[in-house]
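Readers of this paper often ask what the protein records in our data store actually look like. This encoding replaces a full spatial description with a residue-level series of whole-number codes. For reference, a complete record is included directly beneath this paragraph.
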Amino acid sequence: MIRNVVVVGGSLAGLRAVEALRTGGFDGTVTVIGDEPHLAYDRPPLSKRLLSGEWEPDRITLRKPDDMGTLDATWRRGVAATGLDLAGRTVALADGSSVPFDGLVVATGARARTLPDQERFDHVFTLRTLDDALALRARLTGGGKRVVIVGAGFIGLEVAATARQLGNEVVVLEGGPAPMMRGLGSEMGAAVAAVHGDHGVEVRCDVQVDGFGTGAVLIDGGWHEPADIVVIGIGVTPSTGWLEGSGLELRDGVVCGPDLNVGHPLVYGAGDVVRWFNPLFQEEMRVEHWTNAAEQGALAASNLISEAADQPRADYAPVPFFWSEQYDRRVQFLGRAHAGDDVQIVTGSVESRQFAAVYGRAGLLRGVLGLNMPRAVMPFRKHLIDGVGFAEAVEIARTLG
């Protein structure tokens, strides 16, 4: 029997965990620890509608203030967790207090990666939190600035699109040989990023950023790239510092089993901080996307309840899914891309900026990409679950364009 559950992390995964605890019948005490002062909010709009000024912060809250009370939880906002004592079953907090638990959900997410000395320059920004987005928005609004984005991943390119639409000159600098390589592979990453050239944004690859100067980015051994605003979009680091020395296995995230248990009784992980073995793809992965955080938060809480009741627990075996909006284009991806995948465009064309492509590996379908092709993407979730062959997937895709 457990009577006291602590959820460390007050964002999407943490909120979904609290909701699942209550809908699952848990009637004990729930305490949520979050280092941000805000109500749980939606992160995808930070680089798009909120950054552009189309939406205000109240539009992105995941639950309205009046609705939070229905969850009957204690929210410790604006205070970070600093340590975990598994033997004593307590979480230490930055204010010097500690919170006891019977069951625990670790959902501390991730933090934006930074470059050395960037904090010395007030024209250099990262974008991960609501406060980050509001600070950057204040500088972008009104246009007329020269904006340099460091990193051509999804966040970097979404910010580039928003900054350009606000009337700024935008240059994107990428250290790798192609944009969006990690999510889409080099060929399709470059194909999707071509839409930025249509809007006057220059994307340069194989560029080494060496540092910053006043009103500039230093690249390739000392070249000065003028910049009124610099945005660093080079990925995130799982927020695991507070777990050092706790006994949990940490390896680019908190390592969990297929059921999201961390290897200790009644302790589970959820969201961007989790690295787990996905039985469907037969590989260990850490996924940084909205759907994954929401689903893992709910399942971690459900499995916690099941373990406490000595009931079977479910494995988390999803088809990863993410999307991105850049200008008037919507990018959707189902599955998991790897270097060396067979990739074939099955409908549309790169030139039209509207196409669908399938990814294969070892003769099996492994992923589907759509650029403004929603009907050609979502039906493939079932085919990925069923383990359809790559050649068969190509034929199926051609009927859906």
